[in-house]
Amino acid sequence: MNVAICDYGAGNMRSVRVAFARLDARETDDVLAADLAVLPGVGAARTAMAGLRERGHDTLLRERHERGAPILGICLGLQLALEESEEDGGVECLGLVPGRAARILEGCVPRIGWANVDDRGAFYFAHSYAAVTPAATGWSEGIVAEVRYGSFVGCQFHPEKSGPLGAAYLEEVVDRCLSRV
Amino acid sequence: MPLPRLIPCLDVAGGRVVKGIKFQGLRDVGDPVELGAAYSDGGADELVFLDVKATLDGRGTLVHLVRRIAERIAIPFTVGGGVRSLDDAQELLAAGADKVTVNSAALERPELVTELSARLGAQAVVVAIDADGGAVRSRAGTTATRLDAVTWAREAEQRGAGEILLTSIDADGTRNGYDLELTAAVADAVDVPVIASGGAGTAQHVKDALDVAQAALLASILHEDPERLASLRTELRELGVPLR
Fold first, then answer.
1. Which residues of B fall below an 8 Å CB-CB distance to A?
2. What is the ipTM score, two decimals?
3. CB A159 within 8 A of CB A167
4. Prediction pTM value
């Protein structure tokens, strides 16, 4: 099993790396050929999209999605897969998944902390924007927590920061990739 | 609203976890990597690491220690102490921190909060406020400022802080309960999450803090007996606090 983690130069990719290393996944730079491509989530939408374009990851991820190869988007990584984001005055995103990211209007924002996802237990969230999409497959307090669309899976929470439950979530994603082969 | 959080705090000086009372008389209470791992495995919702002497000694934060802890834990990790620039913050994030706290440097130059938030996102920027009564103090409590905690918390929020970590110096290490009045005043003044800090001695203290703030920092109450975290969680659930 190998995994390509799309670094777009925005900070802490380390916890995602550590989490996949714990699952014995080898890291590769080959976004197109990897068993799984991961779009991590840190930073702001505009800088992240610019970082992806600069590295050519935007084209590779679209091609990968068309081929039906698995992609996991985490937090901002989920939002980047949508068509657009309201963040930073409006940002055009990858368009792998229909929908957009909109500012959270209720409660403390940023929404930071552990919250239940349907009946699956509590995961760690840290976000100010959330997906508005017909592809939602998981919810947390009325907010889209998970999205599935074709070969794309996105989670708004951070599985790499969500203790044993988060590790199990990532393991499931990895197992699904392995069972495709 | 997300669930209330319990956040063990490792105050580190000279590579060891220390704890004092009202910021004075620091005692060695253990190894930061061992304690961090014990708390992560023991059900902590998050971990905070503060290099408490960094500003005073003029050293950068202990990056290698941060890296070792980050490798060992699977919960959110906040690091602070001596963060004076975007470069300092990015070095910590690259070492495995999810958020950085700024304190003295932000008081000297509030634009730092704006810069960090614009670049790293608000969720990665925690403004730590040490207050004596309502008055803000800087440099690990050694220096008075003209600011009151509510005013500074509001400004920090406007500049893009994603959370406020509010420590009552009066209550720190006393185990006599959090400064609820101050915590409530700050929590009412801002929309971002507030982490109450200083004074936890019993489960009831922690519950009282979580009634007014979104998270409670724990230090003295845990360090001598890290297994206290699990029993504390049980007691809090029995008191009706909806922990994860």
1. 1-5, 40, 45, 70-71, 74-77, 90, 93-98, 118-124, 162-163, 191-193, 214-215, 244
2. 0.87
3. yes
4. 0.91
